[in-house]
Amino acid sequence: MSPADDPDAVFSALADATRRQVVQALARSGPATATELAGDFTVSRQAVVKHLQALSQAGLVVGDREGREMRYRLTPAPMAGAMDWMAEVGAGWDDRLAALSQFLSDRDL
Amino acid sequence: MSPADDPDAVFSALADATRRQVVQALARSGPATATELAGDFTVSRQAVVKHLQALSQAGLVVGDREGREMRYRLTPAPMAGAMDWMAEVGAGWDDRLAALSQFLSDRDL
DNA sequence: TGACATCGCAACCCCATGGTTGCACATGGC
DNA sequence: GCCATGTGCAACCATGGGGTTGCGATGTCA
After folding, report:
1. Tens-place pLDDT, residues B43-74
2. Is the pLDDT of residue A100 over 80?
3. Residues 27-46 of chain A in contact with strand C via CB under 7 angstroms
């Protein structure tokens, strides 16, 4: 069903620049722990942890416990809901979005 | 060029539920003034004005002056940038997003 | 011209949230 | 068993932003 489920969590999660960088880091380098990620950023480990929790709440990330450490893995599936929302809203105005919306419904994505 | 330009403004603009409702209202009913829109919401006119300004700053809306009133029109094109970002990040993990990303690059959207 | 409506600006309040620091707890290696 | 390392929790701070109210300016119309 393409009609948008609630995209609030996803949009809110991706509204923060640092959080998007975390997502990109996980996309590039694969699963990582908060401390590992914190090494690539200027902010503290705790800040990264908070971001990971926010992303986790949005379903964009999941944490697997490995002994003493917690390894976070990207699960970007919920993004599709947000894309549905945008494609539907914009379909009537913008050709690109209309094509996208058409594609989404054709493929039943 | 599909590589993401800065999607920060779009994500931030759409992170707020009221703001998404404003966008949906404009999509359904066409261009409208802030006072007209405010009639459909519980919040004040000024709050709606602020949201329209935020959307305008993100390029998702543009205001046309008509005599005494300011009529706002939806311009959802910038959403495509945000969709690029999501499709690229998620392409490696999620089949739906991969198909989307493929579609985007095939069509040079 | 005068009355009414609409907009735009500014001040203000309050809460969510990004960020920090500090510390307690668990786990693994020696 | 002990220590190092990493995690998780809590308190705290500061800023931003959503929301409101008030008011002056600007148009519109009778």
Report:
1. 999 999 999 999 999 999 999 999 889 999 99
2. no
3. 42-44, 46
Listed by start position, the domains of chain A span 8-74
> What tokens were used for A88?
């539907």
Q: Find out whether A46 and A18 touch, Cβ atoms under 8 Å.
A: no
Rounded distance between C-alpha atoms, residue B100 and residue B41, angstroms: 34
Cα distance between residue B61 and residue B26, in whole Å = 9
Give the gyration radius of chain B's Cα atoms. 16
Q: Which residues of B touch A78 (CB under 8 A)?
A: none
Instruction: Determine the topology of domain A8-74 in CATH.
Output: Arc Repressor Mutant, subunit A (1.10.10)
Average pLDDT over residues A78-82: 90
Query: Strand D: which nucleotides have any atom within 7 A of a protein Cβ?
Result: 5-10, 17-22, 26-28
Please tell me if residue A1 touches chain B, with a CB cutoff of 8 Å. no
CA distance B101 to chain A (A): 11
Q: A48: burial class by Cβ within 10 Å (0-12, 13-18, 19+)?
A: buried
